[in-house]
Amino acid sequence: MEKLFQLKENKTTVRREIVAGITTFVSMAYIFFLNPQILGQTGIPTQAVFLAAILVAVFGTLFMGLFANVPFALAPGIGMQAYFTYTIVFGFGFTWQQALAIVFLVGVVDIVITLTHGRRAIVKGIPAELKAAIGGGIGLFVTYIGLKNAGFINFIVDPGNIITLNGKPFTGELHGALNSILAGGGVTPELTKFNTSSPLLALIGFIILVVLVLRRVPGAFLISLIVTTLIGIPMGVTNTHIGAGTSVGHAFGELGHVFGQSLGAQGIGSLFSDWHHASLALVTIFAMGLSGLFDAIGTLIGIGNQTGIFSKQDQKAFDDSTGFNSKMDRALIVDTFTTAFAGIVGTSNTTTFIESASGVAAGARTGLANIVTAAGFALMILFAPFVGVVPTAATSPLLILVGIMMMGEFKKISWESLEVALPAFFTSVFMAFSYSISYGIAAGFIFFIIVKFTLGKFKEVSPVLLIVSAFFLLNFIALAFV
């Protein structure tokens, strides 16, 4: 144990690591109930998504603990869950099999970038304030989805003017509402009157969650999820019927129909069937990979440097070394391989969860804590039959609050400077209101170049930014002729 995890060198003990690992597990367990609710809308069997998320989380968390020896747990990221469902499937018209293929390819591309140290050029080539705008924009995106799912905000679109995208009705969402306006249709945004049970339950759940988080109660998200679900029983919102076809065995049967679909004819085999789909797929792969890279690095540096898990030598090795000797290098390798695995198993992109900070705060300093956390994740398999019990009203408050927390990235932006504010604003606003992280990144990059060119500071634009922006422009030109 000592030789494997170097407990004395990291100034920790077995007991402390076990307690911290349990703390991280309790803080993250809610994600397994949220994941099937979001991805299940695409048509993927919900129990399959539930198990896929667990298998990926166990794999990534164990891999992180044993290979990188750091206490950072992995699971499907909330922002990427939303992107998978609302942009890739609903927005761009890909099937869920093709969307999983995109996730797999994102992992493969990230693996190549990480192993060739191309990530260093990307990280250094994109301004810090644009990275912050991307993080905050995803927060806006997630918050809006939470508000919609909770029923707090509704868009009433003229039934006589239903807008479709790739043959599918795209009403009821902000994107569809805006399209309806442009097409001359009627749309009325309205705040819910809380005269129905579901929005009222979501409001109760959100208040409970806020109180628990502000009081810093361990496992606040999971407790809120359970309590809100229970309150929903007498309100008639929670589905208490657990019928046939909801056993653990049935869940694994559903997983069998999803596992490997990304690599089949309906997945990667049809992803590049025509130039229109191919261009969308390439842009999406790049945008998801970029977002995941920033997310992982931000979490690792933000938690690791403050607690001493990553020493100054680790940081220097990450910035300058050509090898993979630092903990941060190895942690990023784990992050990328886990995303590729997620695409094969049947869930959205994984990320290093910020909730790992709860375990670190409880004393975690080595990968031993991850072994305990992964064991907790594995036990979650027993709850597969209860996936359909948790109502949307119980999960939507979690989305809202997570989005609010992510918007803290905006404080890193110098809003008083128009030179900085313009590209940052368009990055975050386009991301949230167009339901597309890709379009947000594209808008921000392009406006950044325009601003720098106008001010005679074109030399400040990195080659990476120019290449990426040119790719986005070519994609938009191609889409204009569809």
Automatic annotation (TrEMBL):
The record's section on Pfam families has:
Xan_ur_permease
Asked if the Swiss-Prot or TrEMBL record annotates the protein with the keyword Membrane, the reply is yes
UniProt subcellular location:
Endomembrane system
One MF annotation (Gene Ontology) recorded for this entry = purine nucleobase transmembrane transporter activity
Under which name does UniProt file this protein? NCS2 family permease
The alphabetized UniProt keywords are: Membrane, Transmembrane, Transmembrane helix, Transport
Top-level taxon of the source organism: Bacteria
- Which residue windows are transmembrane per the record? 18-36, 48-74, 94-116, 128-147, 196-214, 221-242, 280-303, 377-404, 424-451, 463-481
- PANTHER family found in the cross-reference section: XANTHINE/URACIL PERMEASE C887.17-RELATED, XANTHINE_URACIL PERMEASE C887.17-RELATED
In the bilayer, the protein is annotated as: Multi-pass membrane protein
- Classification via InterPro entries: Azg-like, NCS2
For this record, the Gene Ontology CC terms, alphabetical, are: endomembrane system; plasma membrane
**Membership in a protein family:** Belongs to the nucleobase:cation symporter-2 (NCS2) (TC 2.A.40) family. Azg-like subfamily.
The answer to whether the entry has keyword Electron transport is no
